[in-house]
Amino acid sequence: MSKELSEGRPWPRFVLTLATAIAGGFVFDLLHLPIPWLLGPMIAVLIGSNLLREHYAWPGRIRNGGMIVVGYTIGLAMTSAALREMVRHLPSMLLMTVFLLLFCAGLAFVVSKLSDADYRTALLGSIPGGLTQVVTLAEETEGIDLTIVTVTQVIRLMMIIICVPLLVFSPIFETAGKGAADTAPAAVQTVASWSSLWPNGLAFAAVCVVLALVGHKIKFPTAFLLGPAIGTAIIQLTGLHGPALPSALINAAQLAIGTNVGLMLKPGRLTHKVRTFSLAIGSGLSLIMGALGLAYLLTTFESVSAATALLSLAPGGMDQMGIIAHEIGADLSMVAGYQVFRTFFIFWPCRR
């Protein structure tokens, strides 16, 4: 997990982390790789923090700020027409979520038999929820090996963040998407200039921050993402339209989230590194293949593109899938709807 800046020599570690993240983003951008300001900082900080170990730090508040920005962009896509479309998809959301969870439960059983981990630890390592929520749940559950859960979840998330953009940008998905175009209403334009943020941007910013903090206080699932998304959607339903965000702000939000993910992986804490990493990689690949199969199934009875279906069902974090959907022009409201539904389906009973 990332360390707060209050722990010894804070600013040099923060500056080094920020410089590494920016350098990674620029390199990925120059190479024209998918989602450069998410993947670049994540990979660069992962390498740097494991070479220099205690010289890196990233405050949780910056990551939360990035989540608020992503939540706002998701909320922009939730117009009244898009919300009606989401309601129409509720039966398929339930069916696909149940299929995915059953697949994960079976996968966890296999992993538990091939490793020293008990079934509950393997299940939390395989469950397709948000990284923060799964780790928090593991911390609160007695008898869970937190290190195994964290490492497995981070490896899975990194594989999904890397593999899913490569898949959706590939010629295979471009071809598949031509026969199954999204029929949901197109999202509003989501990139604009700084001047367009005034004056409506102030009202939306205040609502997003307040709802994020209140949601966090009452232990709302993925509060810093869902709070702003829900608040933005509600305000738009009243007739006040939210301004699109400049690309620089969206890139900064991606950097904040990618850097945090890169710092979470600590291989030195594992006792059986080769076996744990091998099982985590195998589990991640299996989940991606399972999501691909379910995405194909979804496109057979819903008029959506293959890319939108995969992002809706990919067992990654809602923030990362939202970023990718935004970048490739997928149906952001549908992706967010499926990811939000799965988050509540998995974690809401655990909070009671």
Automatic annotation (TrEMBL):
Pfam families: AbrB. InterPro entries: AbrB_dup (IPR017516), AbrB_fam (IPR007820). Keywords: Membrane, Monooxygenase, Oxidoreductase, Transmembrane, Transmembrane helix. The chain crosses the membrane at residues 34-52, 64-83, 89-111, 154-173, 197-215, 222-242, 248-265, 277-298. GO terms for molecular function: monooxygenase activity. The keyword Membrane applies. The keyword Membrane applies. This is Monooxygenase. It comes from Paenibacillus cisolokensis.
